[in-house]
Amino acid sequence: MTKKIILRDDEMPTQWYNVVPDIPGGLKPPLDPETKQPMSAEKLSAVFPMGLLEQEMSSERFITIPEEVQEIYKIWRPSPLVRATSLEKALGTKAKIYFKNEGVSPVGSHKANTAVPQAYYNMKEGVKRIATETGAGQWGSALSFATSKFGLECKVYMVRVSYDQKPYRKSMMHTFGAEVVASPSMETKIGRQILAEYPDTPGSLGIAISEALEDAFSRDDTKYSLGSVLNHVILHQSIIGLEAKKQMEIAGDYPDVIIGCCGGGSNIAGLVNPFIPDYLNGKKIRFVGVEPASCPSLTMGKLAYDFGDVAQSTPLLYMYTLGHDFIPPGIHAGGLRYHGMSPIVSALVRENIMEAVKVHQIECFEAGVLFAKTEGIIPAPETCHAIRATIIEATKDLNDPKTILFNFSGHGLIDMGSYDKYFSGDLQNYDYPAEQIAKSMANLPKI
Ligand SMILES: Cc1ncc(COP(=O)(O)O)c(C=O)c1O
Q1: Which structural domain range is residue 377 located in?
Q2: How buried is residue 67: exposed, middle or buried, by Cβ count under 10 Å (0-12/13-18/19+)?
Q3: Is 201 left (phi over 0), alpha (psi -120 to 50) or beta?
Q4: Residue 436's pLDDT is what?
Q5: Which of 50, 119, 338, 385 has the smallest CB count inside 10 Å?
């Protein structure tokens, strides 16, 4: 039996796929918080290069991947599609389980797929320095790698709890030449404000985004970069699904279910979106987004216009949200601790094209350990969420020979501290913090 399907370099897709024109009912535009009118490209160009803004607003289905980006992609792409035969055996299921291994990138996750084009378009437009946030540290390392390829400086605001939990992510960013501070930091006005009020805060992606934006607004040589959520990020991630489609065809199979974990929505959308046209043409296929029970934006949030950050400095995005000032508990999948969800994934859920489920972190680590013992790769805590949902799906009916495809968004080799906590019984499951969420929902902007 074929264990893994590898494409040659010259079989790598040369265009990204943009799902936006194919979303039934379309997307609602981002709004300017001051005027409540659609945000203009001019205003956004203070923080993003035009090349990325054009993609953000594009209604073209296919967009060519610049050759310089393709060359860097080839360091690790096309990524392997692997059949999890040993996991299937351990579960005693007749289901076929495939995973797309995005852990093979230089920094260990899918985040490099968008970091490289983002650094490229900034470099093309003469930007010298990029400021960003990072939750788990995966995005910060990916952007540090990408900026080093194009000779740009990089400043990373790293969510406090991850900064303390994952010292080697910092080392990785330093290796690529980036500067890293724990967020909230004393380096920005919003950081100082939050620290004065909550000196022991674990931080959140919403706070770190505010700091990185403030940094970019305050310097002429600097633009801002986001590792998830936005349309252009999801466009870049479509390379995952485009490759997977070719590889499934070579395997002579087609997925009945596609599963991915959801932080801001980029890895699941990257894998799922290229399959959407088939779905719309009547193909029977289910898409399942998996989120942590402690930060359940899709399953417990509200579809509304909200800010992407705590300081209310982003445009208003129409998305499932728990409220922009919700600070989720410090769970070990830092990349899933975001109050909102990408407008694209939100629209897919709104249209009942994608389902959403929530899972607890202890069961996720248990699934990750089983995956490591069977398939030999230690998954990132975020990825463990997709594996947990895959196991649930594959064991619902052990005799159902369905085909499951999940996104292996990243390896966990820099997350061993979290595994240690799991092994020593120090992890706890957090239930949906209803009271805290209700409080931040009351602060949703009135549109
Ligand atoms: C390995 C990994 N998987 C998943 C995610 C979640 O992000 P997204 O939903 O944008 O893919 C992250 C975010 O940091 C991550 O590092």
Answers
A1: 4-8+77-108+240-441
A2: exposed
A3: beta
A4: 84
A5: 50
Contacts of 441 (CB under 8 A, 6+ apart): 302, 322, 323
Considering the domain architecture, whether residues 277 and 420 belong to the same structural domain is answered as: yes
Residue 37 lies in a domain: no
Which of 134, 259, 262, 267 maximizes ligand 1 atoms within 8 Å of its Cβ, making it the mutation to test the pocket? 267
**Over 80: is that where the pLDDT of 432 sits?**
no
Mutate to test the pocket of ligand 1, among 110, 298, 385 (most ligand atoms within 8 A of CB): 110
**Span 366-374, average pLDDT:** 98
Distance from the alpha carbon of residue 34 to the mean position of ligand 1, in angstroms: 31
| H or E element at residue 354 | strand 354-359
The tens digit of pLDDT for each residue in 27-38 reads 999 999 999 999
Give the Å distance between the CA of 262 and the centre of ligand 1: 7
How many Å apart are CA 110 and CA 398, to the nearest integer? 31
Q: Which amino acid is at 318?
A: Y
Is 113:239 a contact under the CB 8 Å cutoff?
A: yes
Q: Locate the ligand 1 atom nearest the alpha carbon of residue 237 and give its number.
A: 11
Kindly report the protein residue whose alpha carbon is nearest to atom 1 of ligand 1: 410
